Every structure is written in C-alpha cells, then in structure tokens.
Amino acid sequence: MNTMMNVVWIVAIIVFGVVEGVTEGLVSVWFAIGSVAGLVMSVLHYGTLRQLAAFVVVSAVALAATRPLVRKYASGGYTRTNADRVIGQVGRVTEAVDAEQGAVYADGKTWSARSSDGTVLPMETQVRVERIEGVKLYVTRA
User: Fold this and answer.
1) pLDDT tens readout for residues 105-122
2) pTM strictly above 0.90
C-alpha cells in the first residue's frame, strides 16, 4: 500500500509543480509542498489518513507563511515613483499646450504636456498637473 501511495504523492508533486510552472502567479506551490509532506509520511510508513492530514496541514502552513508575499505579488497595482510628486502641483506653460503637444515647467523641470480637456493654454498660463503618463503631464488651467 505504501508503494502505491509513494507513487500517488510523487505524481501529485509533479502535477502541482507543472501547474505552478505553466500558470502566471502562485497557484499550487503550497500543494506541491504539502505533497512532499505526504510523501515523507508515506516513506515513514504512516497510514493514508495521517498522510492526508500532513498534506492538508503543511499546505495550510505554507500558505499562511507566504501570505504577505502572495498578497504583494498578487496585488500588482500601481507603483508610485518620484515623478508622481508633481501631480497636483502648479506649473507654468513654457510652450503653448493643447491636446497634442506643449511644455510645462513644474517641479524644477520642463515636461512635455497635454491639455486634459483639449483646451489651448497659452505661454505663461498657470496650470495644475492632473496626472502623468510616461513623461507627459496632463494639465488644466489653475
């Protein structure tokens, strides 16, 4: 019986490992670790019920131990940069800004800029930065 269970646990390790390898994100790594625990219990000649218990407990502990990492990894989201600090600041138009082109001086630098609402903003107009996309500021009249 233990030989058959050894094979079952080895197959489980392989299947969970392959699933983890072909998916994007953490999906089954905890179950692969739990399967290793089940295999160890099988090699030590424990019964099937104890092997399954080891699988469940070790999988749960592995999940709990890596939860902060998983939360960070899975959240993806937006990473703020130093350039983001320009959002909300008031700048000065240095080259007329419209929906297609322009330049604004803000945060001690000259930035490519676009008008958020498509209006033309002449030189020397005070503008507020609404958002940043790449290296372009999207601005409105302050």
Assistant:
1) 998 899 999 999 989 999
2) no
